[in-house]
C-alpha cells in the first residue's frame, strides 16, 4: 500500500495515524509542492491534494473516503469506528467538523492567494481555529474517556490530533482554553501510532 504524503500536511498525518493504529504496512511516496502541482501527479490524482492512497486497484483521495476504505477493506485490523450506530454518527461528526470546517480554513494552499490580496492569513487562521475549537470543546465536554469517543481510538482522533498539532506548533493557539481537546491530544500524542505519524518524525520534515 502506498500513501502519497507530505510531512507538513495535517491531512496526510490523519492517514499516517490510521495506518499505525490499524498496524497496516505501507510505503510513503513523498509529495513536495512542485510535484503536487505537476501534470504527472494530477494524472494520478486530479484533485492535486495530499493525502492519496493506492492499494492495488484502489486509488483514493480525500481523508474521510480513505479512512472509510481502510475500515471496510481491513475490518480484521483494529477498528476506527465503534459498533453502536449513534456512537459512529458522533465519531463521524467530530471527524467531519475537523476535515470540512476547520482544516480548509487553514490550508496552506490558500496562502499564495492571501498574500497577493494582502490578507494577514496568520491572524485569519488563528481566528478560525479558535472559533471552531470553541464548538469542538463543547462537543467533547465532559470527556467520557481517554479519547474523543470513550477509551478506543477512532477516526475522530485521527482527524483531531493533526489539527491540534498544527494549532500548537504552527498557530500558537492557547490550548488551556480547550481542556477536553487538550486532554485528548495529550493522551494520544504519547502513543506510538500518533507520535510516529507526527510531521517532525517524517523524512521530508523541514520545520
Ligand atoms: N478535503 C481534503 C483536503 C486535502 C488538503 O487540503 N490537503 C492539503 C494538505 S493538508 C493540500 O494538499 N493543500 C494544497 C492545496 O490546497 O493546493 C482531505 O480531507 O483529504
UniProtKB/TrEMBL annotation:
Domain annotation GST N-terminal: ranges: 1-78
Residue intervals of the GST C-terminal domain: 84-207
InterPro entries: Glutathione-S-Trfase_C-like (IPR010987), Glutathione-S-Trfase_C_sf (IPR036282), Glutathione_S-Trfase (IPR040079), Glutathione_S-Trfase_N (IPR004045), GST_Zeta (IPR005955), GST_Zeta_C (IPR034330), Thioredoxin-like_sf (IPR036249)
Family matches, as Pfam families: GST_N_3
Domain of life, source organism: Eukaryota
PROSITE patterns assigned to the protein according to its UniProt record, in alphabetical order: GST_CTER, GST_NTER
NCBIfam families registered for this protein in UniProt: maiA
Family, per entry: Belongs to the GST superfamily. Zeta family.
Protein name as annotated: G12008 protein
Species of the source: Coccomyxa viridis
Name of the encoding gene: g12008
